[in-house]
């Protein structure tokens, strides 16, 4: 028996029409299936907390309506469960939105699973925190703390499905756990069947970034050509009861599923391939094999699992002051020299117009930018008197808004007081929310699911809120 | 391998493909030979020391290489190269997503008979 996992989105800001051909194919096949929306990363969780900070009703995926509306009816009518971490910093708000969408489609009786327990902000000071090994920064002070969200595993999502949820809304859940949950629910795998848990987790890992496994984020013209990227098909992962899996995509869509696309995604954001940590299992990829078994069909085998880690990763968001950016363009003869002069003028101005602790960076876009360091090492190594089309970019950071405003205003002033022929100034600044990663003990986390809006469950969530 | 009559220099980009991923200030670069027969060339030349030099200007503090012969590739894990990471960097590309192509721009020595 095969279970189909369809990806509807791989990040917040992904294509909102991607799920349509995936759902059409899941319905055509008529096999048990789920549709997964992964829309929450370190960047988007911070953005969601920033949004909720400004508006208590916000903080869930801003594109929720656009993602769900085209497919919600079809999924509900065909028994395709939808699971998404689109609750972000406000899962209850997302549940309310899903209910409104379902109501509009004549399904006021929709069963929405509401997963809670990832938000440990209120208990953070009483919890034993360990710094994540890749984390070098100090724990921010209490006054700067905005949020703390644990990466939950699949268990509370399975609980939601067992309650009969048709749509499961979560906040911070490990991305692959979204995919593992419907497999656990359907196949009733044991929670210590580590190899199957690892296979299900890797089905999730391969699907969680949407088209990144099926031709998206892959094309390199002449070397890695991808057909019809404008209509790239989002992946469908076929999973068998024994944990074997095949990556494919809906027929008639663009993109491609090849050995190469699958390999790139296999290690995406992985550190030690012999010990990929997730809340549900430690995955060992050292013996993995990837085989093309047909057009746009790739099998992945050799995935092994070990007992899940003792501690769970937690993302802490804290106020990181302000950041600002401003840009100006120089083009035509001697453009690079004029852009460099503009950077020198600006740098000198900031030495007496801004405090020394202002962080700043000067890119000359078109010459060197994203590869460079904050101190411009590459730019210095490769200076010349070149013609072209360059854009000087200033980026600054400071705890106080006024210095970020002041510094970016200095770039604006290059219009009149800088080198000849500068144009196209753009300037923006915003509050920065930084993130840091810690590890917490499982016993300090209580994750659970309720059906949204049912009185008994409201009582239960009230109890938890009062802890 | 140094350039001589038997070898020539080539961009790694011709032999291999790569994808970058980030977590906090840590970057991973997954690198794969297009042709599994070229895996040994990558293994010999894409070393932790060369990666350390390539990313020195970004303040890399540690490089670890995990060879994956079954995939004809390797995972390269670099600590502290993101200068603040996705939520703290001044760099336009706070994720470090473009850095897979900094890696692929490396020159490597290959047998002179190799096409490309």
TrEMBL record, chain A:
This is Acyclic terpene utilisation N-terminal domain-containing protein. InterPro entries: AtuA_N. Residues 5-447 form the Acyclic terpene utilisation N-terminal domain. Pfam families: AtuA.
TrEMBL record, chain B:
Residues 10-108 form the AtuA-like ferredoxin-fold domain. InterPro entries: AtuA-like_ferredoxin_dom. It holds the Pfam family AtuA_ferredoxin. This is AtuA-like ferredoxin-fold domain-containing protein.
